[in-house]
Design brief:
Elements lengths: L3 E5 L5 H12 L3 E5 L3 H7 L5 E5 L8 H14 L2 E6 L1 H7 L8 E6 L4 H18 L4 E5 L3 H11 L4 E5 L2 H8 L6 E5 L7 H10 L8 E5 L4 H8 L5 E4 L4 H14 L5
Parallel strand pairs: 1-2, 1-3, 3-4, 4-5, 6-7, 6-8, 8-9, 9-10
Helix pairs in contact: 1-5, 7-8
Length: 254
């Protein structure tokens, strides 16, 4: 597998050139583009790792950042960023922390950056062998926590709405979906109905995530016939065990 990174920056500076040269010197293939929708769209066709050099222009490219966020979700691209505290704060107003794999603060330690990006490349190569879980929830804090819990054993893709989940599944097929039962606009039951109505997605297993544990609520969830449900109050061990148990039970299935 080629070791390729897309390096996004606005123009070339001494530091941008130094980073590029050091990455290439470490045996990584670096492709470069600017932070604009057209350039990002064209440059991410064969990329699954992005390194983004931030600048004081971020507030002027909100639409481009939204596009970058969406394409990282859609194509499961790993995003790492370089910037100062203020720039990273602006970025996170558009791109949630859960989507950012690594943050490198300035002043920059280039050796650490190169080493980390090398690890990211190697990790992405190995990730292809892992089961892919699609995590759907409108709470960014919950997304980050659960992704952290699962990422060591699974490839975890996160989306924050039902329609983002449907859009993702138009191009990718997860091995398991963890679906929030209660979401605004398009709730979990509606998303499950849409999943089951399409031939390409109808057999994908779905676990509902629910915050209600009373008998009436659980009965209502199970009436929709998901593969299972997980209480949002469950701790790390319980959640991981339920998912691990499901995959062990259905080992060899797809």
């Amino acid at each position: 597998m080629e070791k390729k990174i897309l390096f996004i920056s606005r123009g070339s500076t001494f530091m941008v050139d130094a980073i590029t040269n050091n990455l290439r010197g470490a045996g990584l293939e670096v492709k470069k583009c600017g932070p604009a929708v057209g350039q990002i769209s064209e440059s991410t066709k064969d990329i699954d790792i992005i390194l983004f050099y931030l600048g004081d222009y971020l507030e002027d490219i909100t639409e481009d950042l939204v596009f970058l966020k969406d394409i990282c979700i859609e194509k499961e691209i790993s995003l790492s960023v370089i910037g100062d505290e203020a720039e990273i704060g602006i970025l996170k107003k558009v791109i949630p922390s859960a989507l950012i794999a690594n943050t490198f603060s300035r002043p920059l330690d280039i050796r650490k950056l190169v080493s980390t990006m090398g690890d990211v490349v190697e990790g992405r190569s190995k990730e292809g062998l892992k089961k892919n879980i699609l995590l759907v929830d409108d709470d960014p804090s919950f997304l980050k926590i659960v992704k952290d819990w699962l990422s060591s054993d699974y490839r975890v893709t996160i989306v924050s709405s039902g329609m983002q989940a449907i859009t993702y599944m138009a191009k990718s097929r997860p091995d398991l979906i963890l679906l929030d039962y209660e979401m605004p606009v398009t709730d979990g039951p509606k998303v499950l109905e849409m999943i089951r109505s399409e031939v390409g997605t109808s057999s994908i297993p779905v676990f509902f995530l629910t915050g209600k544990s009373d008998k009436e609520s659980v009965t209502k969830v199970l009436a929709l016939r998901p593969e299972g449900y997980i209480l949002k109050s469950a701790g790390r061990e319980e959640l991981v065990d339920q998912i691990k148990g499901y995959f062990l039970k259905h080992k060899g299935e797809r």
